[in-house]
Design goal:
single chain, alpha+beta, Chitinase A, domain 3, 3 domains, four-stranded antiparallel sheet, two-stranded antiparallel ribbon, elongated
Length: 254
């Protein structure tokens, strides 16, 4: 075996790079490993374009302080122990912090012009609604139960416990917060016209009949936390497109 092809030694047995790739191919993991290699390669290339952007020492130190506070590593001994257990020294740790800050700068550059448009595009799935439901198998029963609620003052929660075939009947029919984009079209259309506290239905969904009470509307807003989430999504899409458009030629025979 040529020394240049040696990848690692296991119990004094050499494993070449070609063998390692063959093992990965046999296990079905080669493609994901190559994808990750290309991901890191492209990231490093893009981050090199940010060499002119200086990350200030004050900013790095502030991030280090925040990290130590958040992880209860405020005293020097515990911090040094954590560094040792992580296989790091302080200069390497600071370099990782600096690289992370550069990556955030890259994300901002890549996504800045598209974030508002992407938010609007994703808003249907970001908007949430809190619902309670009463699900039965027959329309006539659903109509009767609705009449009992509206005309006779019957308690929705009690009827849900007694009659609903949905598993959430044990929670009085409470479904909790749900993305509007995941709701059936017929239900979402009615919710868009409803106010909190309003009873909707009966509506047929998957051959069952729903009575739905709108508890609360939770429209999404582009706050800092959501902005960071959407930036990460957009950045990963941009990075995936970069990888797909890269001509990769494997040079190792295996």
């Amino acid at each position: 075996m040529e020394q240049s092809s040696l990848f690692l030694i296991a119990d004094e047995q050499p494993i070449s790079l070609g063998q390692a790739l063959r093992y990965l191919e046999s296990s079905g993991k080669l493609e994901s490993v190559l994808w990750e290699i290309m991901r890191q390669h492209i990231l490093e290339q893009e981050l090199e374009t940010l060499e002119d952007i200086e990350i200030s020492s004050d900013l790095i130190e502030q991030v280090v302080i925040d990290f130590r506070l958040n992880n209860q590593l405020t005293d020097s001994a515990s911090f040094q122990t954590w560094l040792a257990q992580s296989g790091l020294d302080y200069p390497t740790f600071r370099k990782q912090i600096s690289s992370g800050l550069k990556l955030e700068n890259l994300k901002a550059q890549v996504t800045e012009s598209n974030i508002q448009e992407y938010f609007i595009e994703r808003k249907l799935f970001l908007d949430q609604v809190v619902l309670s439901r009463l699900v039965v198998e027959e329309q006539s029963l659903a109509e009767e139960l609705k009449s009992q609620i509206i005309e006779d003052g019957a308690i929705f929660e009690q009827l849900a416990q007694e009659h609903s075939v949905a598993e959430d009947r044990v929670f009085n029919g409470m479904m909790g917060a749900i993305s509007k984009g995941t709701l059936p079209d017929v239900l979402r259309a009615e919710i868009d016209l409803a106010n909190p506290g309003e009873l909707i239905g009966p509506l047929e969904v998957d051959k069952l009949w729903y009575l739905v009470r709108v508890e609360k509307l939770l429209p999404a807003s582009l706050d800092e936390q959501l902005k960071q989430q959407l930036e990460s999504e957009l950045f990963e899409q941009w990075l995936e497109e970069k990888i797909q458009n890269t001509n990769v030629q494997l040079q190792v025979k295996f």
